TrEMBL record:
Gene Ontology terms, MF aspect: kinase activity
Annotated InterPro entries: ATPase_NBD, ROK, WH-like_DNA-bd_sf, WH_DNA-bd_sf
Keyword Transferase: yes
Similarity section: Belongs to the ROK (NagC/XylR) family.
Protein's name in the database: Sugar kinase of the NBD/HSP70 family, may contain an N-terminal HTH domain
Keyword tRNA processing appears in the UniProt entry: no
Keywords from the named record: Kinase, Transferase
Length: 360
């Protein structure tokens, strides 16, 4: 955009816009990106975000692994890292994340002083709750302030978020949710979570635990949804039959081979998944619900196809432009990339305090 367009869009004067652009150019955050002729006079200079003006770090902490990513200012993923752990305790996690930051900066060949902040995605629930002993939770983190712990270790501003929320944000930057502002994201992480975005902002709840949908009894006979629809439930069923599935690549190979246990699990999980989508639609009225995360693409696609969504839903509209349930496009590092996207979201979609009315 040119100065005049920015001035019209922002309500600022052209002179104010020119001063701000000069400052942002000097800081390396904006760059000139071509010109546009508007008839008489000199062509107007056009400005764009400088993708190398700053970078955002993102980390996902799982019980058995820590994943990292770094994004430029356009949301492009320029480096990733992954490290397996025995148990992701607080101090061990802070040490690994610090080393991972240095490795990512070196791998990307960037100036580490241009890193603007870090996002960290943790599996919920946060705080001491009645769900803290679930297999998908992080042991040893109760009572720990992750913002202070990791912020001190990195010496950066840190945003901590539920992993499903981070994944939901990642899909908005170059993923299946690009162009959408209000949607749900069902996330396969350690368990099954739900990220919700309304008008481009995350819905987090009073204690950061909104979207713990995996703990709802939606699977029939009072069984929690997560026990029927999660990577843990699929791996448990395979292991019960003597089939070892230690990682996502193995699950993908079994799916491509049309393994009967994987096929039956998909058939059994489709019903509970459809009921979960219906709940999200009824409570939240999203543009769409996205299914993604740490699960092979083949299984995600088959789940979406197998889930028969009820016709009696407020989301069953004749004017829909996108299906009610779709696959995500950001892959298994979605939560790490999403954690970094939280930093960009804070920069580009700020929340402003309301201005008190002035009495005349």
């Amino acid at each position: 955009m040119g100065r005049a367009e920015i001035a019209r869009a922002s309500g600022l004067s052209t002179q104010a816009v020119s001063k701000i652009i000069a400052t942002l150019e000097a800081d390396g955050l904006l760059m000139q990106d071509g010109t546009r002729s508007a008839g008489r006079g000199l062509p107007a200079a056009l400005y764009a975000v400088n993708p190398d003006g700053g970078y955002a770090l993102g980390f996902e902490v799982r019980p058995d692994a820590i994943l990292g990513a770094i994004l430029d200012l356009r949301g492009t993923q320029i480096a990733t890292a992954r490290e397996r752990v025995i148990a992701a305790g607080p101090q061990e996690t802070a040490t690994i994340i610090t080393a991972m930051r240095d490795a990512l900066a070196a791998k990307a060949g960037i100036d580490a002083t241009r890193i603007l902040g870090a996002g960290v995605a943790l599996p919920g629930p946060f705080g001491r709750t009645g769900l803290s002993e679930e297999a998908s939770a992080l042991p040893g983190w109760e009572g720990v302030d992750p913002v202070a712990l990791i912020g001190d270790a990195l010496d950066l501003p840190v945003t901590v978020e539920n992993d499903a929320n981070a994944a939901a944000m990642a899909e908005r930057i170059g993923g299946a949710a690009e162009g959408h502002a209000t949607y749900g994201y069902l996330y396969f992480g350690a368990g099954l979570g739900l990220g919700l975005l309304s008008g481009g902002h995350l819905v987090t709840g009073a204690f950061g635990n909104a979207g713990e949908i995996g703990h709802l009894p939606l699977a029939g006979d009072g069984v929690l949804l997560e026990r029927a629809v999660s990577r843990l439930s699929l791996v448990a069923r395979l292991e019960a039959a003597g089939v070892d599935a230690p990682d996502i690549d193995t699950l993908g190979a079994l799916a491509r081979a049309d393994h009967p246990i994987v096929r039956q699990w998909i058939a059994d999980a489709a019903g509970p998944l459809a009921r979960a989508v219906h709940v999200v639609e009824t409570l939240f009225d999203p543009e769409t619900v996205i299914l993604g995360g740490a699960m092979p693409e083949e299984i995600l696609r088959d789940l979406v196809q197998a889930a028969e969504l009820p016709a009696s839903s407020i989301s069953n509209r004749t004017d829909r432009t996108v299906p009610r349930l779709i696959c995500g496009r950001t892959g298994r590092l979605v939560a790490a990339g999403g954690a970094a996207a939280l930093v960009l979201n804070r920069l580009f979609t700020p929340r402003f305090a309301p201005v008190a009315p002035t009495l005349q």
